[in-house]
Write a structure and sequence with these properties.
- The chain is of the alpha/beta class and about 270 residues long.
- It has a single domain, classed as Dihydrofolate Reductase, subunit A, CATH 3.40.430.
- About 25% of the residues lie in helices and about 25% in strands.
- The chain is built from eight helices and eleven strands.
- The longest helix is centred in the middle third of the chain and has 12 residues.
- Bound molecules: 1,4-dihydronicotinamide adenine dinucleotide and the ligand Nc1nc(O)c(N)c(N[C@@H]2O[C@H](COP(=O)(O)O)[C@@H](O)[C@H]2O)n1.
- The ligand Nc1nc(O)c(N)c(N[C@@H]2O[C@H](COP(=O)(O)O)[C@@H](O)[C@H]2O)n1 binds next to helix 3 and strand 7.
- Its EC number is 1.1.1.302.
- Keywords: NADP, Oxidoreductase, Riboflavin biosynthesis.
- Catalyzes an early step in riboflavin biosynthesis, the NADPH-dependent reduction of the ribose side chain of 2,5-diamino-6-ribosylamino-4(3H)-pyrimidinone 5'-phosphate, yielding 2,5-diamino-6-ribitylamino-4(3H)-pyrimidinone 5'-phosphate.
- GO terms for molecular function: 5-amino-6-(5-phosphoribosylamino)uracil reductase activity.
């Protein structure tokens, strides 16, 4: 994997207000970051890795990765993309720990998975995979766990809720307690991002948002960011709206930065 040229200082300074800072809420600081098309798609379809970021916005993503203790993706992204989940920016001073949400232990991670190769070459960290606690004793999980432990990673069991998902509150507090994670970059895919944005109770965990928008339409059938509109306990839908918004043009793309958790308000129009 070739290294990515360093991110220019004059651009890096513009992102500083959106980098993690110590959180007072007891949870790791969470940055939501992904690349999208003009029709809100992350990829052409489930299982199809689609390049959206240009070279400069890709460098930005790898620069931002170095400021986080962890990067988190869903199992389908791990399976389809076989990602490195490290920072390949020249001179990277810190590598985040990859975290994969995989309640049903679907990802057959092996010695030749890119993230493991990267850890072996000491160009990144070995991943921790979060599974439903009931799957921790599964034979395949036990074997994969042994393999990952050789490189400093592993499997962690968490109980799922009635819908088969982990609660975000549990994910975040467990990552902080067990792995000492203070900041986390959630990169995708659609399922993970939508589950984070659909409920006000989860949106409160999102501190910073950094979205690359590429000048292209992927068309119907793509994996889209479009959370369900779930009403709050009072039966109202509170529109999440970013604050402290900054648009940063970067070659053909534009990067949208903002803050979310500073209590989203009901938007009543101008
Ligand atoms: N453009 C971009 O920046 C990115 C694009 N992608 C693309 O997104 C696509 C994959 O997205 P999706 O199919 O939506 O899958 P996904 O990557 O969101 O994974 C879905 C799986 O993650 C697990 N999961 C999600 N939320 C969970 C929760 N709260 N608790 C427990 N488990 C949970 C479940 O196993 C679920 O089946 C791929 O095509 C990939 O290339 C992925 C990341 C970033
Ligand atoms: N920022 C960004 N731009 C794109 O165009 C993308 N397709 C993605 N995808 C995400 O990046 C992961 C790949 O990471 P590595 O470079 O392999 O470390 C992929 O799994 C998606 O999370 N991101």
């Amino acid at each position: 994997m070739s290294s990515i040229p360093s991110f220019p200082d004059d651009l890096a300074v513009q992102f500083e207000p959106y980098l993690p800072s110590a959180n007072t809420n007891g949870f790791p600081s969470l940055t939501l970051t992904f690349a999208t098309s003009l029709d809100s798609a992350l990829s052409l379809g489930p299982g199809i890795q689609t390049q959206l970021s240009g070279s400069l916005t890709k460098a930005m993503t790898h620069h931002i990765r170095t400021f986080h203790s962890a990067i988190l993706v869903g199992a389908s992204t791990a399976i389809s993309d076989d990602p490195g989940l490290n920072s390949r920016i020249q001179g990277a001073k810190h590598q985040p720990i990859p975290i994969v949400l995989d309640p049903n232990a679907r990802w057959n991670i092996t010695e030749s998975s890119r993230v493991v190769q990267t850890a072996k070459e000491r160009k990144g960290r070995a991943p921790f995979i979060l599974v439903n606690s009931q799957n921790l004793d599964d034979g395949a999980v036990v074997e994969r766990k042994k393999m990952l432990q050789n490189y400093g990673g592993g499997y962690i069991g968490i109980n799922v809720d009635d819908s088969g998902r982990f609660k975000w509150e549990t994910i975040l507090s467990m990552l902080k307690q067990e792995l000492g994670i203070e900041s986390i970059m959630v990169e995708g895919g659609g399922n993970v991002i939508n589950s984070l944005l659909e409920e006000e109770g989860n949106r409160r965990f999102v501190d910073n948002v950094i979205i690359t928008i590429a000048p292209t339409w992927l068309g119907k059938g793509g994996v889209v960011v479009s959370p369900d509109r779930k009403p709050d306990p009072k039966g109202q839908y509170t529109q999440p709206r970013l604050k402290e918004v900054k648009w940063i043009p970067m070659e053909e793309d534009v990067v949208l930065c903002g803050k979310l958790n500073a209590s989203s308000t009901l938007y009543n129009g101008p």
